[in-house]
Each structure stands twice: as C-alpha cells, then as structure tokens.
C-alpha cells in the first residue's frame, strides 16, 4: 500500500478535505487490511507521480489535530487518477502527460470507508437493537 496516495484518497473523501488524525488512522488501518486490490491500486496510481511527497510539495496541510488536502493536492490526485491534467501543475512534480499510464476502472472509484464506532453506536440506538439480556 502506498501511504501517500492513500492519505490523499482518504482526505479527498472527507467534507472539506479535512480528517482528524484519529479518523485518518482508522481509515488507513481499514484500507491497509482490505487486501491486495487496494495495494495494487495505490501502486498503479503512485507510478503516475513518481516523486510524490505530500508534505514537501504541500499537497496536504496539518491543521487543528488533523490533515487537510490542499487544492494542489486535489490537482495531483486528479492527475494520478488520469481524470484531467491541470495546466498549472509543475512539471517536476508529476510525470509528463505522455508518460501517464491509462487509468483502470478501479483507479477512478471513490474510496468508501466503513462507519466508525460512534456511527455504529448511533445506528444501534436508533434501531433499538442491542444484546441486552432480559433478566426480569
């Protein structure tokens, strides 16, 4: 699994592109254990931006106990997903368009992460289900 590609994909899936560290770590753990498909997908995407460095290239920023994807980060992710190639991208940051691999359908799918513990608890409360024994 390519850590930097995974971070970009997770952040772009959050509203406003911001994720608190706890949620980011949880999502990373889920994707890291999701099997070979995710690892292969991120590896293919990483080949489209061989010198990717999300920190030094300012593709993400650290804010209020979490990370947020920047507009530049969104643009690089678009290039890696081969949706479009923004004209303002710096040539040293990504591979030239002629070298970009063609995307596979799996590369352009959105990342979906399972609901966290708080969401599952809320769903249980709403549904009224639980594993309580009736001892009366």
Q: What would your notes on this structure say?
A:
There is one protein chain. The protein is mainly alpha-helical. The chain has one domain (3-127). 41% of the residues lie in helices and 8% in strands. It is built from 5 helices and 3 strands, in the order αβααββαα. The chain has helices at 3-13, 21-32, 36-47, 71-80, 117-127, and strands at 18-20, 60-63, 66-69. It has a 3-stranded antiparallel β-sheet. It is globular.
Q: What value does the Rg take, in angstroms?
A: 18 Å
Shape: globular
| Biggest sheet details | 3 strands, antiparallel
Q: Widest sheet: strand order?
A: 1-3-2
Tally of structural domains: 1
Report the strand count. 3
Tally of alpha and pi helices: 5
Query: What structural category do the secondary elements indicate?
Result: mainly alpha
> What is the straight-line distance between the termini?
52 Å
| Share of residues in strands | 5-15%
Q: Tell me the series of helices and strands, N- to C-terminal.
A: HEHHEEHH
Provide the residue-averaged pLDDT: 76
Which percent range fits the helix content? 40-55%
| Low confidence ranges | 95-102
Short description:
Residues 97-136 are annotated as: Disordered. With 136 residues, the protein is mainly alpha-helical.
Protein traits:
three-stranded antiparallel β-sheet, globular, mainly alpha, single chain, 136 residues, 5 helices, 3 strands
